[in-house]
Structure formats: structure tokens, C-alpha cells
Amino acid sequence: MVYAAFVACCLIWGSTFLAIRIGNEAVPPVWAAAIRLVLAAAALSIIVRLTGARFPRGAAFRGAALFGFFNFGVNFVLLYIGENSIPSGIAAVLFATVPLSTSLIASGLHVEPLVPRKLLAAVVAVAGVATIFAGELGLAVPLGGLLTVLVAATSAALSGVLLKRAPRQPAIPANAVGAAVGAVVCLAASFALGEDHALPATTVAWAPILYLTVAGSLGAFVLFAWLIKVWSVTNASFIGVVAPIVAVILGAVVKQERPSPLALLGALIVIGAVVFGLWPSRASEPSLLSDTRERLAE
What we know:
single chain; mainly alpha; 13 helices
């Protein structure tokens, strides 16, 4: 179940970068994110009621709300804006830094211990990101877009750690709260940016929003919330390594995006650093497997 959820998240999130890029061509970016989250919050809330589940309260509610603020709010606003100016494949590669950011943040907040080699991997990953910046700047890709997506990725990493630190709770109610909070943030940002708030008028405009709502918000994010409760949050964030590969392939096939050779080199450095930093050591495997079995049994 754990690995099936992991693979599903990799495939879905690898495709969402392209869906966002396509959607930005028809609907103002942050407004599109807000519509997606309003639909997701409504659908998830209906599921909660129909299944007899309960919405989180107290510390669990705060954890879900913070997850929504940083992941569905800050992350979505910056990612949707950033993808207006940079290729979807490069945006996904920048999100490959999420596992390393997660491991550092989790250690700083005393959620999970930091493995020393992850520090070395983090330094190498930063060098890889710098290489991507250099390659894309050579193709006149705005530095602001690259930095915007990198901050979005860091916000996403923080959100996962905050949800992991909160009391354990069912994934669907937690995501219902998170989507509602994120919708408020995106709506506020959309109005602050002066975007047009007309509803999409064509099937082409609605298609990416509906796909992102169903596959992303109702699918991958619910699976991810479940994963970080039954697994290590750092291991769950390893999804960020695989998703860029899917995104780069889809971007090249569908949108004919052609990253620069230097950017591809930087992508390989980032992915290699993350794989090195997060590959489980022999000593950690027994305890990880034992912990996963216990959580699944619960």
C-alpha cells in the first residue's frame, strides 16, 4: 500500500506541472488555483460527511490549517505564478529539492533526526540548482520565475513537516481543511494581483482545473497526507525526485519544451544528490520497516 501510494503520487504530480502550465494559457494563474481549491474543499467536505468522518480539532486542526496555508496557499500561489515564465520541466526539477529541504526542516523542528550525509547532499543539490539557474538564464528565462518556484518548493517542504508534527488524523478531513485554508489564501492573492475573475468559459480552460482538482487535490494530496502519517516524512518527500522525470518527459512531448544542456546537467546533479542523501542505510532499514508495519497495523 505504501509503495503503491508512492508511485501514484509520483505519476500524478509529475503530470500536474504540465497541467498548470497549460491552464495558465487560458485562466489567470492564481485565480485558477483558487477555483481548484474551492472545488476540492467542497468535494472533500462532502466525502467527510458521507463517510461519517470528523473534521480535525485542536492541535490536529492547527496542523491541517498550517499544512493548507503553506502547501495550498503559499506554494500554489508562487508555483502558479512561476510557471507563467519558466518551463514545467524546470519547475518540477526545482521541486526535487523538497526531500532535502524536508530533512533539514524536520531536523530543525525535532520531528526526525538528520543523517549527516544529507548535509553533504544538500550542498551538492544547491550547486545543481545554481547550475540550472545559469543554464536557464542563458536562455533568457527570468531569474524571478526560478526563485519564485524554489521558494514554493521550500514552502511545500515546510507544510509536510508541520502536518507530520501534528497529531495523527485521517487524510481526507485534513485535506478538506487544508484546501479551504489554501483557497482563502489564493483568493486573497488573486484579488491583490488584480487578476480577472471571470469563470472559465471553454472546455479547454476547464480541463486543466478539473484534472488538477480530481487527480491532484482529491488524489495525490490525500495519498501524500496518508503517507507522511504512516511513513517517514523525509521518505514520503522522495516523491520530489521521481516527479521531475515525469514532468520533463511530458513537457518535452506535449509542449516541446527544450531545457538547455546546462539545465539538464543541473537536473542530474540535483536528482543525484537527493538520491544519495535519502537512500536508506542498512542500519536504518529494520527500524523503518518495523515503524511502517506498526503504523499500517494501527
